[in-house]
Amino acid sequence: MATEIRPLHGEGRTAFGLSGLWGELMAEFMGTLVILAFGDGVVAVAVAGLPGSGRTAGPTQIWSGVGDWLLITWGWAFAVALAVYVAGGVTGAHLNPAVTLGLAVRRRFSWNKVLPYWAAQIVGAFVGGLIVYMVYGPAIQAFDLAAKNVPQQGTALATYSIFATFPAAYFHGSNVGPLIDQIVGTAFLLMFILALTDSRNLSPGANMWPFLVGIVIAAIGMSYGPNAGYAINPARDFGPRMVAWLFGWGKTAFPGTYNVGGLHFSNYFWIPIVGPLVGGVVGVLIYDFFVGDVLHARLKKHEEAEPERTFGEE
Known about the structure:
Oligomer: single chain
Number of domains: 1
Helix content: 55-70%
CATH superfamily: Glycerol uptake facilitator protein
CATH architecture: Up-down Bundle
């Protein structure tokens, strides 16, 4: 197959490390870009695209029911699945600093690659969020104008939510609940990823596990999403949050402070970073303690039970 497709810039490109770390970083960048281009994209559709295009009851009519939430959860699911298909053949598709950290802790992923992977993922997420702003900028501005929201004054939370996450009002400004939510959600994410990719377990075929990872994202979003927007990925939140900050959402993005009506939170930006990183490690350890070590012990027992072959024995 490699001989059938000519490299875009000729064979000389191999001299730039495409078969090594540089190629891995390119794949991580592109895969994370896909996640955000379609994940943030589906939120832009729900928040600004459908209302602004006349496809809802009014120009500011959103969240009319669970249908909008299902649209977003399934949109993110497809975004992640497609991104894994894009990058999986090169890196296994980490596309998430929490995944990279978890694999370094328990799956012998090189610690020397952790920071480069994180950088590629964050830049990819930033560019993905930037693409969404470029495409949906007019719809976002039309929505804020109709709703009389001004991003620079910290009142445009709906359009800000296209790019980054925030906690639910029932936490009353506390960061404890959202932090726990992010740890739990990401722990489940890593546990399921390991289960799907563990050859000792009931792992699916190579062409199916990316789709099933998307199902995992949908399940987490449906079960835990309303608490804090189920970032469960530091790059997914931090990269587009920078886009929101650059294009006028100000303190709502950084440091993550909002106080309008009954909803208020402050200095929130670090929660979707620290929570998933902690949760990723917790998820890997839980999987190995309750399942991975059991699979290892059974495999070891099976190997020891096999009779030793002698030379010439069939």
